[in-house]
User: What shape does this take?
Amino acid sequence: MTVIAIVSAAGGAGRTTVCSALAVLLARRARQVFALELDAQNILGAYLGLDSLMPRGLVHALLDSRQAWHEESFRSVDGVMFVPYGALDATHIGASEAALAALPDWLASALADIDVQPGGAVLLDTARYPSQQAEQAMRAADLVLCVTTPDPAGCVALAAALHGMRRPGAVFYIVVNQIDPAHAMHRDALALLRARVGAAAILPQRLHRDAALPDSFARGAWVFDEAPHAQISHDLHGLAHWLDGWLSGRGGAG
Assistant: This one.
């Protein structure tokens, strides 16, 4: 089993979009895929086809040991097994944060219960770093994909968080999302990011800003199905192809 944490140091970077698209595209490549949500926003299910937010999920097993964490799992039409985070009020959000801090290896232990075929993957959609959810995900991960936007705010946030995001035992790469090559600020920010983290840490598979993506999502469709020739469809397929190859390089059969 390979665990992949999708993280970011700034809000609005596109973690959930990247996580859900990769989960679906890997499943369509005949890989067994689990997608676990570690974010109180609780919206990954909407990306994977659920028509309502799920009231219970992973976090309720954290707060009540009598509940198995996988009791609230669902299978998408593409075959992705999905476990929502679950909805919480303000009081229970605080309790869950405290529980995660007190049990730093809780997620890693929970993931050991998953029966994943060789070549399968578990994708973790996390809350923004720093957070207890992101910490748990990165601690359990074999691969950390850090999603960032090529703007000053995103790059400054990433530069400040970079040391904490790079973990021993986990491969780390940056995915640049929502890039517009015609935008001078984006080109400058990307150059600064390369200088700060090194070009080798940034995947060449960039995700371009493309109106086809939100338009397709608003209609309840995947952009790579509804607009297969759009730039973002090409980009997402390219990122999935890279990840599929990376998984195969770890000895996982396709």
Summary: The chain has a mean pLDDT of 92.
